[in-house]
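Retry 2 of 3 after timeout on previous attempt. Resubmitting structure tokens to design endpoint.
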């Protein structure tokens, strides 16, 4: 049986108040397009009861202690067989019929296909992938479909507790990997995730930037030189 286009991976821990709505938003999609994987961190609040309630529609699930959200995401990657992987938080929801919509634009030559997200307060976040990515995360993983071939060589760094998904996006940008932007809302996201911890987020951003400093500097210098020569010839044309 051929692999489905999408693997949807949800990581949960004590998410009894929100997980069922997340699961429903996935299972209401076209069932031929996806497989669903849930990695639970040994919840003790009844979350597992909700997972069991829907387990016949879940390709794989497990509830065991992990070393944090990115360790759990790595476990999900190991089980994923879809060509495109999306990570959906246990308090996030896919937009209705969104997998059918994204499926129209799939291009296996791309490494990343991404759209926008909307927060629970109604504010829309327009994802971008440009020079701003050198400074901060500009693509939310709840709106990002990663080509599974990326994960043949990449796993999330579990020593990074909040911003390891940014590290992946930064690597995609630095390596000039191919990506496509879709101007559609993929999911609704909760504002109160780990990355809302501002101080810890900034510390981890600094660590990631230090780790890739030479690559970032090289790219910035290269772009600065291109801009310099562009302006030089532009001015020559204006005044000649």
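Retry 2 succeeded. Sequence:
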């Amino acid at each position: 049986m051929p692999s489905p286009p999408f693997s949807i991976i949800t990581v949960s821990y004590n998410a009894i108040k929100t997980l069922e709505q997340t699961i429903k938003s996935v299972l209401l999609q076209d069932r031929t397009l996806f497989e669903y994987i849930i990695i639970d961190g040994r919840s003790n609040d009844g979350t597992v009861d909700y997972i069991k309630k829907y387990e016949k529609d879940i390709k794989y699930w497990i509830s065991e202690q992990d070393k944090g959200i990115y360790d759990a995401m790595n476990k999900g990657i190991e089980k994923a067989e879809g060509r495109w992987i999306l990570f959906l938080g246990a308090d996030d929801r896919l937009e209705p019929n969104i997998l059918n919509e994204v499926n129209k634009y799939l291009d296996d030559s791309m490494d990343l296909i991404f759209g926008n997200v909307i927060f629970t307060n109604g504010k829309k976040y327009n994802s971008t992938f440009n020079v701003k990515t050198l400074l901060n995360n500009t693509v939310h993983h709840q709106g990002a479909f990663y080509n599974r071939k990326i994960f043949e060589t990449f796993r999330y760094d579990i020593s990074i507790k909040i911003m390891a998904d940014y590290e992946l996006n930064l690597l995609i940008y630095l390596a000039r990997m191919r990506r496509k932007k879709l101007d559609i809302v993929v999911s609704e996201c909760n504002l109160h995730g780990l990355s809302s911890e501002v101080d810890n987020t900034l510390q981890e951003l600094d660590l990631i930037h230090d780790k890739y400093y030479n690559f970032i500097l090289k790219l910035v210098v290269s772009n600065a030189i291109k801009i310099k020569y562009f302006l030089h010839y532009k001015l020559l044309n204006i005044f000649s």
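Attempt log closed. Strands lie at 6-12, 34-40, 60-63, 84-87, 93-94, 112-119, 124-125, 144-147, 179-189.
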